Amino acid sequence: MGLIHIDLFSTLDGVAQAPGAPDEDTEGGFPFGGWQAPLFDEVVGEQVNAGMAGLDALLLGRKTYDIFAGFWPHQEEGVDGGIAKLFNGVPKYVASRGNPTLQWANSELLGPDLAAAVREVRDRHRNVHVIGSTDLVQTLLAERLFDRLSLWVFPVVLGVGKKVFARGGVPANLALTEPPVASTTGGVLLRYALADGTPGTGDMTREDRGV
């Protein structure tokens, strides 16, 4: 069984909607499309590329798939050529409530039982990456159908937009897998692994609490 990686860019208030471009996702009248662009630097770029090591499949929601399918097939000769060749070559699995035509090479529509379909994908591959796809991410969080969460948190507050934990998620423990990385613009990369159990509780008013 492989690993499912969720890769997201988030604001301090947890908004992950449309970080890359103004027209990426305007649902709900979102007015801040492209909010990440002024905060993207070489550190972010290097870490994003490093995080793709071993990727052998993409798992995407319909909106993110459409954006990627319109962009990456035309980038192999540009500055993002390495990532473009990787994304263009690996299998792409798409979650959709409809029956879209998938024209990007090596694309496959998942069946209506999304949780079962995702488990089958994880059984076929070693490192499956979910990039963006905030609606799909909600299902994966609720079903605990992920193994790694790479979360870039940037120093802006938007107040509106789709959030990483829009539906609250389910109680879960996560473990930091490596030291945080900070960008020159104040963004912080946190890489987590899903851990066993649910969050514990304690009593900070006890005299023997050890502080």
From TrEMBL:
This is Bifunctional deaminase-reductase domain protein. One of its GO terms (biological process) is riboflavin biosynthetic process. It comes from Pseudofrankia inefficax (strain DSM 45817 / CECT 9037 / DDB 130130 / EuI1c) (Frankia inefficax). Residues 6-177 form the Bacterial bifunctional deaminase-reductase C-terminal domain. Pfam families: RibD_C (PF01872). One of its GO terms (molecular function) is 5-amino-6-(5-phosphoribosylamino)uracil reductase activity.
